[in-house]
Amino acid sequence: xxxxxxxxxxxxxxxxxxxxxxxxxxxxxxxxxxxxxxxxxxxxxxxxxxxxxxxxxxxxxxxxxxxxxxxxxxxxxxxxxxxxxxxxxxxxxxxxxxxxxxxxxxx
Amino acid sequence: xxxxxxxxxxxxxxxxxxxxxxxxxxxxxxxxxxxxxxxxxxxxxxxxxxxxxxxxxxxxxxxxxxxxxxxxxxxxxxxxxxxxxxxxxxxxxxxxxxxxxxxxxxxxxxxxxxxxxxxxxxxxxxxxxxxxxxxxxxxxxxxxxxxxxxxxxxxxxxxxxxxxxxxxxxxxxxxxxxxxxxxxxxxxxxxxxxxxxxxxxxxxxxxxxxxxxxxxxxxxxxxxxxxxxxxxxxxxxxxxxxxxxxxxxxxxxxxxxxxxxxxxxxxxxxxxxxxxxxxxxxxxxxxxxxxxxxxxxxxxxxxxxxxxxxxxxxxxxxxxxxxxxxxxxxxxxxxxxxxxxxxxxxxxxxxxxxxxxxxxxxxxxxxxxxxxxxxxxxxxxxxxxxxxxxxxxxxxxxxxxxxxxxxxxxxxxxxxxxxxxxxxxxxxxxxxxxxxxxxxxxxxxxxxxxxxxxxxxxxxxxxxxxxxxxxxxxxxxxxxxxxxxxxxxxxxxxxxxxxxxxxxxxxxxxxxxxxxxxxxxxxxxxxxxxxxxxxxxxxxxxxxxxxxxxxxxxxxxxxxxxxxxxxxxxxxxxxxxxxxxxxxxxxxxxxxxxxxxxxxxxxxxxxxxxxxxxxxxxxxxxxxxxxxxxxxxxxx
Lengths: 107, 636
Ligand SMILES: Cc1cc2nc3c(=O)[nH]c(=O)nc-3n(C[C@H](O)[C@H](O)[C@H](O)COP(=O)(O)OP(=O)(O)OC[C@H]3O[C@@H](n4cnc5c(N)ncnc54)[C@H](O)[C@@H]3O)c2cc1C
Ligand code: SF4
Ligand code: SF4
Description:
The structure holds two protein chains of two kinds. Chain A is mainly beta. A three-stranded antiparallel beta sheet of chain A has the order 5-6-7. Chain A has a two-stranded antiparallel ribbon with strand order 1-4. A two-stranded antiparallel sheet of chain A has the order 2-3. Chain A is 9% helix and 28% strand. Chain A contains two helices and seven strands. The relative contact order of chain A is 0.18. By secondary structure, chain B is of the alpha/beta class. Chain B has five domains: 2-101 and 177-193 and 358-421, 3-Layer(bba) Sandwich (FAD/NAD(P)-binding domain); 102-176, 2-Layer Sandwich (Alpha-Beta Plaits), CATH 3.30.70.20; 198-354, FAD/NAD(P)-binding domain (3-Layer(bba) Sandwich); 430-482, Alpha-Beta Plaits (2-Layer Sandwich), CATH 3.30.70.20; 488-630, Rossmann fold, CATH 3.40.50. Chain B has 15 helices and 30 strands. In chain B, the strands form ten sheets. Chain B has a five-stranded parallel beta sheet with strand order 3-2-1-11-22, covered by helices on one side. The longest helix of chain B has 20 residues, at 403-422. The A-B interface holds A 6, 9, 13-20, 23, 56-61, 63, 76, 78, 80-87, 89, 91, 97, 99, 101 and B 437, 439-441, 444-445, 475-477, 479, 488, 491-492, 495, 548-551, 553-559, 588-589, 591-593, 595-598, 634-635. One iron/sulfur cluster (SF4) binds next to helix 10 of chain B. Residues 5, 10-13, 19-21, 39, 57-59, 61-62 of chain A line the site of one iron/sulfur cluster.
């Protein structure tokens, strides 16, 4: 399921030429609405759910739902990035919560 | 105009503040460019009769400054000139664009006045002023003693009567405006204020009723260039003034006009009461007031005037003024709030003591105004330094003030300016270009405009302008900006330590703003000797805005139970935007935590002042007990 942008949290990366989500999306799917300066996914069908934008957004404004092959609605997978660690919170269809956190950087 | 920018300062405004700043800077060896919008130097003080506290004529003080300035080869003065644009050129250098209007009279002018006599373009600007001509001179005293042509009134080259009248061939009506660019290292803004427009106070009838004038106009009555050549007589009848009323707070301390007190008008009225009694034996003076505000040694002056001249003080502001054309008298009606009786008085002159309104200055270079519309820095720590580094405010442009305070503020601005010219660059953030994707967030969030993109698009902190707040580091989504001594490494070390230690003990990361919260914390550990502070890992940052949200996340997903940020109150933040940025970042994170089913109460932002160690202690205890209720962090 494609990325959903929370308009209250997204600040359009302060209206710079290229917002972080635009820069990072491998499918070039994220765009800024020119009037509201909020991000949106221009072609939801093409989204691969790679979650790059979710992880990269400095405002934590983007959310994706799990594709149905992995977990049916309302299952969720939520990443949160630290400076050297990443965590994943998986909330299943049955509301079971599982969490993982790893060191993903060594510099 | 090509000149050496380094060490050169632009002073905008040639009033007492600007002249003081220019003269002191020049004495300290700095190159100075002094720019004044009007045809003459001296500002408002030059148009007074005398100025308190020493009752000097304006020449005293101003003339010394102007003569010294003229003697310095490294000072350039431009009259009839305004700054129309300011741009940042390079590290610590500003490019300013000046617009110089033509004077149309050259230095060879001897101020003989023959041109003025010949000039047919004449107008009267107010009931109590002499008519003015399109070509006119400096009046009683001003510098330079050269005439000038008022473009707005001049009939143009078809007339040219002044050109023919001038025995020195000093009039040149063909001069055109000139625009020039100039590089400078610092700018002192000393453009003064506007006086509040008295005609906006409808009930007093200024501009409508003859005889109602402003305090500024009354000053001119005592000057040789005034309405009756310096005689204190009524401008309409030519009779000596008999009964004069002063209305204090005219348009001040009033939500419909200026909400604040300008602070100088009470003393000005006392001074003018003294002028009147000194030059007229039989004059009566009344003062309508709310409070007489004469702080410091001006109280002594108030007592002197009250006892020596016995003006009538009525506590209350008039509700109306009526004009009787038959007698030329003004009837002022007012409720005396002390006796609760209505008082009526008849006067031949009513003087409105108007306050200083916010300066009318173009909005250039994003310089912000304070709540009242003036240009001031961080009060009280950096009063003259504006939020754009290298730009200072001096004199009444900063807030309403009298000449003494204007001089003091000019000296303060000069001191700060000289410190800046000589100081060692502070620690400033370094950018890791390999990681940066040039998103520009740091450029937008830096409260000082010190983080600027280079020609390659990579931002860099200007070492001359950066004040080391670290707000850029706190906002960087890619963690590629590091203020020396404050990077992500330190947080990671703390998290690793907690992880290797293991165990169920509560662990809390506490970020402390170095300005207020950290000193408060230091007093707290002395008071508590560590008791009640177990499990707290303190971490100092230069400003709470320097905390990156990823650091808070790092601590939470690394298993720490909670993260607390202690910063200044938003209105006290030493870097203006730090606390509010921290609040936004934490609110965003809390929303994500909620979605993750992780309690948002695990992060908290608290505001402390430097002496709030007890409040900090209470907040820490509350935070700890709420974490106890939540139980250990599920990431542990
Ligand atoms: C009626 C009256 C009586 C007073 N009596 C006293 C007194 O007795 N004692 C006392 O201490 N104070 C007195 N004051 C207050 C005193 O006049 C001010 O405190 C003082 O003039 C402030 O000096 P300044 O240099 O800040 O501003 P100003 O004197 O206003 O000078 C500012 C200068 O900047 C110029 N300028 C403005 N905009 C621009 C621009 N964009 N570019 C270039 N130049 C510009 C102006 O033309 C002006 O020359 C009195 C004020 C009034 C109104
Ligand atoms: S990265 Fe986040 S804040 Fe920036 S534009 Fe995309 S959604 Fe908005
Ligand atoms: S540390 Fe502060 S002042 Fe310096 S560049 Fe960064 S945000 Fe600007």
